[in-house]
Amino acid sequence: MNFTSLISVKNYLRIVYSVSLFLLVNVQAMAQSKEDPDQLEKKIANAGNDSQKVELLLTLSNNYLSKPRELKADLEKANQINAEAKKLSNSLSYKLGIGKVMLLDAQIHRESGDSKYGLTKTNEALIYAKKNSLFVLTADVYKELCAYKGYEKADFEEKIKYLELAIPLYKKSKALRKEADALKDLADYYGLVEEHQKALTVLENAVVIYKSIGFKELQGVYTLMSGDYGMLQNPQLSLKYALMAEKTAEEVHDTSYQLCTIYNHLGLAYYDLLKFDLAFANFEKALNIALKNKNVDDINAITYNLASLYCHKKNYIAALRTLKRSEKSYPPKDEITKIRQLFIFVVSYSMLEQPDKAKPYYEQLLKKYQESDVGLFYKLTGIIIYLQHSGQVEKTYAYLERFKEFAKKSDKLIFYSQIELLSFQSDQASKKYESAIEHLKQHQVYKDSIFNLEKLKQSTALELQFETEKKDKNIKLLTQQGKLQEIKIENEKVIRYLFLGSLVALVLFLALLYNRSRVKTNANKNLELKRKQIDEQNEQLKKLLAEKEWLLKEIHHRVKNNLQIVISLLNTQSAYLDNEDALMAIQNSQHRMHAMSLIHQKLYQSDNLSTIDMSWYIYELISYIKECYSSEKSINFVLDTEKVFLDVAQAVSDGFNCK
Q: Residue ranges of the domains in the chain?
């Protein structure tokens, strides 16, 4: 049973409608000032009683009005501040302030639930704005009038008229941001009345204006463009702009509820391109955001998208599970959503050959069919499929005739295609094979016609995009040419100034180089002179040092010789002495002098005149002692010494004390 191709197409009508409503709310909210109320109150306190204070009061009042959840306290605060702005505007005879106060007063009453009074005040604001030639305010009032219209086609057409009046006024006053926002709203309404090519043209113009003022939060615009290309059966471009919307949202760090819309459009685009895994993933993302925010309308719309996708893959159990997940917690509020849910239940149970479970839903669908023509396509399709699978094929023909009447009024090829397919299935079940074959052939003819029509729409959409891009390129080219001319003139001035500046800089640089060269030359001369002086001093010091060392060695040599002479004299003297104690004293003196002479001998023989190697000294001393006492006693000498260096003063003192 192939009914899901129609579900995918019709999905857009409902989902674009649902999504557009909260997109419009977001756009209006974004248009309000986001300045911190505390900062505004400080500015108001410091401002004088002039028009600037009026504007600050109006901004603060707007802030309270645009707060989420529409708390009564916020509305009362907005009304109180607006009354203050009104009083000051009247005292200053500030016409623009008076008009803005009137419009804001109307908006506050509308948000408070008093739409009748709000509409009266809005019309008064329109008369005042026109009378005083306040063009931007007049356009703002036209936009406000859109809020008093409903959601039927006639209402959307009225909103389009208001916006078509507002946009030229914004353009005339060069209120670019407001003009772009109004174009975006206008495109949204064009889409809702199925004028999608017009919508795309308007959206392209809005993008050009947004970019010209450096506005980067274009994800909402790209989402609408994705929806319009989807309705024109151009899934490639629909996917392109849905992806652009996602990318832009990431770049501007958008975490608002608008992401639900973006993911849903991505899911629809992937759905139409038969990339079901990606469609599932994005529908789930959108549904999670809707569930988190408890947005019943969007929960039901996205749930229906998921269920229809499961039906397309013939996974009717998953389709039923998806619907049941939100059926109790988030029951649909509007009639068309209730009908579509019943339709999925009837079809899924019928396709699973479970007519008993399908019957309660079928009976509800039949009752609604008897009550009104709302959602007639879903009602008729569901009823016929149930009758075919419950063994009541003959009853389907009456509903098929009713379906044909409905198709004639809507004049949509896809309805005729669906009728022929359902007729083929009824005839096949009734064993009317010749008739069944004819219906199948006719179904194929309609299917081919739809395919060709879709190709034509795609071609038209591509041409539209090409023409828009061409126009944008021409605008950019002219803008660039003007900028290039300005740049050329500026460049000539810059070149002149650069030449003069460079010349001055060159002269200064050369003077600096010359000066540095002279300073460096003088410094080098001084350094060379000092170096020569230092070299001469070093040579003198070397000579003095050499002379000093020679003198020290000579002194040590003479001291050693003198000590040897004294030793010899003492030795001669001892030859004339018979007293044993006197001889012993003379010998001790000789030994001490010999010990000292060894030190002086080592010093004049060594290159180092500051220290003595005591291991050598001890060795020499012991050798001397052995020679002196070998005749008296037999003594065994064992030397165990390490190299120890002592300075001359210590060494001489130790030598003097040796016995």
A: 572-657
